[in-house]
Amino acid sequence: MLSKHDSIQRDQLEMITLDQLVPPNHLVRKMEAAIDFTFIYDLVKEMYSEIGRPSIDPVVLVKLAFIQYTFGIRSMRKTIEEVETNMAYRWFLGYGFHDKVPHFSTFGKNYERRFKDTDLFEQIFYHILMTAANKKLIRAEHVFVDSTHVKASANKKKFEKKIVRKETRAYQKRLQDEINQDRENHGKKPFPPDKFDRN
After folding, report:
1. Taking the model in full, what pTM does it have?
2. Residue-range domain boundaries for the chain
């Protein structure tokens, strides 16, 4: 028997929490359970003023980059578009159904004004890598970078920092390219390479 689904259900009012919409085995739940992101506040506190209007939560900014990188989203603009409709991403960020998601340029502006000349991403990535290793989620003697298997040397900490540095710099380069492309799209000159140069 042929049946047709009644699309009028789209307008049905439901009482449901965001938490109910995120499957128990979703990767964002596993990341949230494994990593206490509050360590980021100590890393960034000197980068923020005590006066002025409230900022976007720095943990949210880092989690946005985490979503982009973990789920292979090609740009911050696309990441924000995904967050607007993806309930699991909203849950991971701590946003409700109606919370306004930051504009994609917010991340670029914060990167340029606060994070660019720091090793913040390296510190965060290293902390998360160590947390994962300590919880036996990864083996410290093997690391995958850009799909290439690399065996660690005897000095694990030196090796891990080297890998972290390579990975974070690759991400920063992609982010810088995206910022410059957005500037060009809005009739602004792209930042010269030395503007992003960390030396």
Report:
1. 0.68
2. 22-196
